[in-house]
Amino acid sequence: MQSQDIKPSDPQNDSIVENKELNIWEALIPVFALVAMLAYNVYMYGGDALSGSNQFVLLLGGAVAAIVGIFNKVTFEQMLEEVSENIKSTATAIIILLMVGALAGTWLISGIIPTMIYYGLQVLNPTIFLAACVIICAIISVATGSSWTTSATVGIALIGIAQALDVSLGMTAGAILSGAYFGDKISPMSDTTNLAPAMAGTDLFTHIRYMLYTTIPTLVITLIVFVVIGLNIDTTGSANTEGILTALNSAINVSPWLFLVPAVVIILIIKKTPPLVALLAGTLLGGLAALLFQPNIVAAVGGGTSLNFTTGYKGLMDAITIDTAIPTDNEALKGLFTSGGMSSMLNTVWLILCAMVFGGIMDAIGALASISKALLKLFHTTFGLFASTVASCLALNLTASDQYLAIVVPGKMYAQAYKDKGLAPENLSRTLEDSGTVTSVLVPWNTCGAYHSGVLGVDTFHYAGYAVFNWLSPFMTLLFAAFRIKIRQLSTVNP
Known about the structure:
Structural class: mainly alpha
Radius of gyration: 23 Å
Number of helices: 24
Shape: globular
Order of helices and strands: HHHHHHHHHHHHHHHEHEHHHHHHHH
């Protein structure tokens, strides 16, 4: 997931903290406490739980973990050091989030996002829209190796089209993420695709070929589900499309030349340009496009009637940093014509920081290692080994709040167990991706869940059920294990 870029600089050598003083039940105390507190908090606040209360609950969960650690001879200084390392590892992700907010602001007032919506409405209709979202995002994410870039570019535009077509935003976000994580999972440019085989002890392209056995059926089922949903959804958006197109055309200067800006950003990512550089380039090019194509809008956002240095500067800076809107009298467009800039990402940044506190303390006290070891001991059959790997990845996405740890920790813990069972390492690397990479986006306090929810503007709980590819992948890998389909032995010669 190249746009995230928050993994340790050398995750293969990143140490896993073990604590012989800590037993499994003590390691699970903070987990049970956190789940109980989060459940109650969501019950009390509903969709507003991520506005601040969940963040504090994560800190309370960290406090419970810290108490457990103190009783098991872990010093407060050790815990703070691990928290510091965790937060340090998210620095790039936080800056990327802020840059995505900036990019969304300039792409709005430049007319890039409205132009994408304008042409998208003419091509897409509610019946094929969700399946098309999966395919479009799959293509972009394979090309870029990044689910984060996919969400920040075409994902935002597709959400806008969904609003205009009156298609459920939860369904749309689920379709976007299903496609985005298909590419994130199999693209050789994705860092998780490189990390999983490194942890398991196999090579990249053997890993990718072996993943296709479970990934292609999962994608096909996902597409079938969204085609069926598309044939049955009841929307009113198609009837209003003509009016929205007319309003879009009158509100902004629609031009296909505006597609050059997102094209440049995608090309930069494909060329392995650092994500921050690509996003900054996209933001600046969006600002330039705004001055060239939408001078009146820039002036209006800047508080003037005509474009000059003052109104131009204020208009662009406001779009980049705070809530801005393109003036329109059309009620249907008011929601599409707003952006929060960098400030809209601060709540997500807050969530990530609090999640890293909980994950850091859990790692420092040895709870993550204890949970993985306990799961490994529960199973003795080949299927049990796969099941324990899946369970470990899911548990770490929930507790460590970071998909890299959900790959690194089980990868290190289970590598020898797979060898002892006579299983080729690509079995482990595939299972790590099928359960660690793709499920991270389903957890609201995981860095991936927080990011995509913030970028797409859709609560994690609203899209999780529709992210079919993401929650189906672990079941597919377990199905293959249960029936011993394509379970390669160490004696098998790689193709």
